[in-house]
Amino acid sequence: MLFLKFLRKSIFLFSAFFLIFSLLLFPTNAYAFKVVDQGISKMAPNNQDPESFEKLTIFPQDWPILYYWVEYTDATVGDKLVARFQYIDQEPTTFSEVSEVVEKPEELWITNVALNPGKSWPVGKYKVSLLVNGKEVSTLEYEVK
Length: 145
Hints:
This protein folds into 2 domains: 1-30; 34-144, Immunoglobulin-like (Sandwich). It is built from 1 helix and 8 strands; from the N terminus they run H-E-E-E-E-E-E-E-E. The protein has one helix spanning 2-25, and strands at 34-41, 58-59, 65-73, 80-87, 93-101, 107-114, 124-132, 135-144. The strands form 2 sheets. The chain has a 5-stranded mixed β-sheet, with no helix packed on it. A 3-stranded antiparallel β-sheet has the order 1-3-6, with no helix packed on it. The protein starts with a helix and ends with a strand.
């Protein structure tokens, strides 16, 4: 009987030690993707010219192309980035999703959404969400007036 108590206690202590050791060795938040900076521009930013990185929040209805840019770090090669553009004035409506696979851990990604010829953006509030491997990591809101 005494041996069984000792055995149970030993198993419990070993399990607790193994669990703590595993958590220290493999942290649960090992994924470290970080958004360094982001914005929405009327013109395609030029990564050679820091002044070209606009951070606009209001656009006219007839502006043909909106550029979303995000500078990130600590990504994993092979991660999937998705920019989800939504009209949010009423029930959120996704009108465009653009994706790309990460090739470098630190990079600048520029994508865009364009109007069809002869069309205009509905007046209202919008947002673009950045998803990494299906998980939302940031959002930016903007407005069309």
